[in-house]
Amino acid sequence: MNSLKQNSAGFTLIELLVVIAIIAILAAILFPVFAQAREKARAISCLSNLKQIGLAFTQYNQDNDEYFPGLYQGNWNSSIGRWMDSIQPYVKNTQIFNCPSDSNTANKYIANRGTIDLGATAIGGFGSYAASNAYWGNGGNAGGSQWAGPMSGAQNVTDSLPSIESPSTTYLVGDGNGSFQLSWVFNAQQPTAIDAASNPPNTLHGTDATSTNLEGMSVARHQGRTNIVFCDGHAKSMTLGALLKTSDQTTSTCGTWETPTNHCGLVYFTRADDGQ
Q: What are phi and psi of 130, to 5 degrees?
């Protein structure tokens, strides 16, 4: 009887505490790893979204004499459609415009919203991705200034794919925040640094972007990286620092306000082949 009692003895309190401590240490080590793996999966899903968006642009261009769709259609304060609405029939999917790492529900894409006020704050429904409208003040007419983005300028003014000298390095659409476009006006509002204090943090934007006016915010929402699709249809992940690369050219064709220090602006936001 005594030997049976001895054999059935359980763990001591010290042994239980040691086991609990080991489990807690393992959890502290593994949870961040799991979180990073989950975010990596989201980043890959986001990149897949942009690859499909790039393919949709290619199909749209083929059906429209190689021209890109307009950033928005109609008047500024009464738009009847955005670039997302133009290519949505080619993807037949609304979720593709929402980045899985974008937790702001107001950003969720609403297809064919109809008449909207693009000047209103917090309008929402644009999705998680913004098209380049950088240097829109130099947009001019379709096929005009090489400063203009592919869909820059006044409403319904776009460029054709052949007019883009360097489609593989010209930003088309990427991770944005709260707007359908990335825009900054002329050189005075050109991004020059990564803003870690913005809302959300770690963005590139012009001086006119605020917490209520989110136009122009390129967001690094994937572990310090941002996903982009370029005009030739390929998608890649980049750091915001890489997007700040300036051109090596200083010719008079770069713009009316070009100076030796400004060069031709940011390489990835001009459609010229500006000396990588």
A: -120, 140
Q: What is the pLDDT of residue 172?
A: 94
CB of 136 closer than 8 Å to CB of 260 = no
- pLDDT reported for residue 118: 64
Local structure of 251: helix, strand or coil: coil
What is the average pLDDT score of the chain? 78
- List the structure tokens of 113: 């919203």
Rounded average pLDDT over 71-96:
84
Residue 226 CB partners (closer than 8 Å, separation 6+): 174, 175, 218, 219, 220, 237, 238, 239, 240, 243
Task: Please tell me the distance from the alpha carbon of residue 174 to that of residue 275, in angstroms, as a whole number.
Answer: 22
How is residue 261 written in tokens? 């220090």
**For the chain, how far is it from start to end, CA to CA, in angstroms?**
86
HSE at residue 96, side-chain half, CA atoms within 13 A, is: 20
